[in-house]
Structures are given as structure tokens and as C-alpha cells.
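Design job #97: recover the sequence.
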């Protein structure tokens, strides 16, 4: 994960949000294997509006992307480690 990646995702989301496409920005976030901010796209309450505003702020914040990409990197590394352990255990039990 690099700062360039965070900048790229931030800019992509800003472009979608500027076009009024919050749902697309949330889907883009998920497509990057990053948990998108939680909000309702249809609810009409002050709380739902606040959550949508917060989601837009997060998606357009480079620091938010850097943090989430770092989490994804750590999660991927842990999954790789677990797979390697599984392979090793399978290999050891076969001999």
C-alpha cells in the first residue's frame, strides 16, 4: 500500500461524489476490499442524513483511505500466514 494508492482512491471517490453517486462510491470502496462507511441510501431522517454526510467525508479523505488500506494489507498478510500454516500442517500430517 502506498500513499499513491490512497490518493488514487480518494480522487476516484471525490469524482463519484461530485457527480452525486454515493452508492457508486460505496461500491467502489467495497470493490477495493475495504469496508465502506455504513449509511442508508434511502432512509429520510436526520440520523440517516448525518451518516451519509459522514460516509462522503470518509470516502473523500485521504487519511481515511490510508488507514483502511493499511488494515486491508494487515488482513491480507494474516490470511497469507494462515494459508501457509495450513499448507505446512497438511504437509506434516502427510509424512
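Job complete. Output follows.
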Amino acid at each position: 500500500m502506498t500513499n499513491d494508492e490512497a490518493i488514487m482512491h480518494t480522487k476516484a471517490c471525490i469524482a463519484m461524489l461530485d457527480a452525486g453517486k454515493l452508492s457508486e462510491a460505496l461500491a467502489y470502496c467495497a470493490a477495493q476490499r475495504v469496508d465502506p462507511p455504513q449509511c442508508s441510501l434511502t432512509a429520510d431522517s436526520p440520523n440517516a442524513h448525518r451518516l451519509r454526510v459522514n460516509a462522503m467525508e470518509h470516502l473523500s479523505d485521504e487519511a481515511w483511505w490510508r488507514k483502511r488500506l493499511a488494515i486491508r494489507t494487515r488482513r491480507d498478510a494474516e490470511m497469507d500466514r494462515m494459508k501457509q500454516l495450513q499448507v505446512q500442517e497438511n504437509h506434516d500430517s502427510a509424512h
